[in-house]
Specification:
Order of helices and strands: HHHEEHHHHHHHHHHHHHHHHHH
Number of strands: 2
Distance between the termini: 28 Å
Strand order of the largest sheet: 1-2
Number of helices: 21
Strand content: under 5%
Structural class: mainly alpha
């Protein structure tokens, strides 16, 4: 099968599974488990099979862009599809044991497949309208999944997430409408081509502001972050891993960088906005995380801080900074998924997320404790783990940007280092309160989680270590993605050809 015909499968497979799973669940619940595992496993195989392949434009119905709907894949599309596939597969494996405590597991897998289909659709769409459609599919699924426990806390968090997500979608839809009014097209490459011809600056600025607010809220950047600290702790642990590891990147970060680099063209004004939002999120998220005693809420605020690193690095706009930002995105997808799944393991075994009620779990849950320690050290930037190298590259790139940033480059580099130190402090606090110290008497009965759950934790830990030890390989993998972002004209030519 050619690459052109493989691309739609990233959407069709999970979308089809979402419709088949409820029917299969009418007969046997284990059929829903099996379909979810097989579907995400096939996505992993397809994603790895597409590594290193050329650009693909898939025209639905044979209508070539910009006249019809098209799916588009380049090295950045492959990069994001690969991350989504691997994390989704591991989350499904973890869910096989973890979700047994819930009823309605068939509905859970159906919603999870819809979320995966929506994220893959956003990444592959070549026009704004279908980006919005798939974004809504993923978002609505996530609203339901956050409320999956149907307790008061989950329902309140889901409602808050729904309201703020709806506001974000309204900003995005209004921006899409204005874009169509000034360009007469929704195709991303065609919009970029028309904007190169000269369009009213004030209208472009308004559209840019709407997209930054809308996609910034989806990415949980400060000050658009209010939904995330409630949604992540309330959701089941596998969904927390999906939200933080994948959703905020696919619906937020990807859309921001694709649109502002390949469509609008990244300029100094956009760079200033990205850097400002990045620094605000880095610092604010870290300070708020430091004051948390809820395991998952601490991780949620930490996600805001780490998204700040990515947007800040991409905002600098130099090749090295973009590589650092994308490498940190890759690292974050794995070490934050690991940490949220570790929090789920602790909650599964002890029945609480309150760090003040934990302690001494190292003796009872050695695998969970060890994997959580590695994940915590990676996110804190401790060598030789992956998080260290991505943060180091970001700091070096910031210092090297002196020619454009002036003396502010040194201050910004210092802030990134300081935030990393604060991150280390609150993760040391987490490890001490949860895993070390005396074991409370009421936790004497605690034992390690089932083998399938801790096996997933071990696999993610291997990735965290591997991203550090094999860092040059992953930089080589990310370099073509950076080239795509910095070459708007090639993106337009690849999609539109000679039109």
């Amino acid at each position: 099968m050619s690459s052109e015909h493989i691309l739609p499968l990233f959407i069709a497979l999970p979308l089809g599974a979402a419709f088949i799973i409820p029917l299969a669940g009418l007969f046997r619940e284990w059929l829903a488990d099996t379909i979810a595992v097989v579907t995400t496993g096939l996505l992993v195989l397809l994603a790895f099979g597409r590594m290193g392949e050329d650009t693909v434009v898939y025209a639905l119905g044979g209508w070539r862009p910009p006249f019809g709907i098209n799916l588009y894949s380049d090295s950045m599309t492959v990069f994001f599809h690969l991350i989504i596939a691997v994390i989704s597969f591991l989350v499904v494996l973890y869910s096989l044991e973890y979700m047994r405590r819930y009823t309605g597991v068939v509905k859970y897998y159906c919603l999870l497949m819809l979320m995966i289909a929506g994220m893959n659709g956003v990444i592959a769409s070549g026009d704004l309208f279908n980006i919005f459609v798939f974004l809504e599919i993923a978002s609505i699924s996530s609203y339901a999944l956050v409320a999956f426990g149907i307790e008061s806390e989950e329902l309140e968090a889901s409602f808050k997430y729904l309201v703020l997500g709806g506001i974000a979608s309204s900003f995005i839809l209004f921006g899409i409408a204005l874009t169509y009014s000034i360009t007469g097209t929704l195709n991303l490459a065609h919009i970029g081509q028309i904007l190169d011809g000269g369009v009213s600056g004030s209208m472009v600025n308004l559209v840019s502001a709407l997209f930054i607010m809308g996609f910034g809220l989806k990415a949980a950047l400060m000050p658009f972050h209010a939904w995330l600290p409630d949604a992540h702790p309330s959701a089941p642990a596998p969904i927390s891993a999906m939200l933080s590891g994948l959703l905020i990147k696919a619906l937020g970060v990807y859309c921001l960088i694709r649109i502002f680099f390949n469509v609008f063209g990244f300029g100094q004004s956009f760079s200033t906005v990205f850097i400002t939002l990045g620094v605000l999120s880095m610092v604010g998220g870290a300070l708020l995380a430091a004051g948390q005693d809820d395991f998952k809420r601490l991780l949620a605020y930490s996600s805001i801080s780490q998204m700040g690193y990515i947007i800040f690095a991409v905002g600098i706009g130099t090749p090295l900074a973009i590589i650092g930002g994308l490498l940190h995105l890759l690292n974050h997808a794995f070490f934050k998924s690991l940490l949220f799944l570790c929090s789920g393991a602790v909650d599964y075994a002890t029945g609480t997320r309150d760090l003040k009620k934990l302690g001494g779990l190292w003796t009872k849950m050695p695998v969970t404790s060890a994997t959580c320690t590695i994940g915590s050290l990676s996110i804190s930037g401790i060598p030789p783990l992956g998080g260290f190298f991505s943060k180091l590259i970001i700091v070096i790139a910031t210092v090297q940007a002196y020619d454009t940033l002036g003396v502010a480059a040194y201050w910004l580099a210092g802030i990134t280092v300081l935030v990393s130190f604060i991150t280390l402090l609150y993760f040391v606090k987490l490890l001490k309160m949860a895993f070390f110290g005396p074991l409370p008497a009421k936790l004497a009965h605690v034992k390690e989680v089932p083998a399938l759950m801790w096996s997933v934790l071990v696999i993610l830990t291997v990735f965290c270590i591997g991203f550090g030890l094999a860092c040059p390989y992953f930089i080589d993998m990310i370099e073509p993605v950076q080239e795509v972002l910095l070459d708007k004209s090639t993106y337009i030519i690849n999609v539109l050809g000679s039109l």
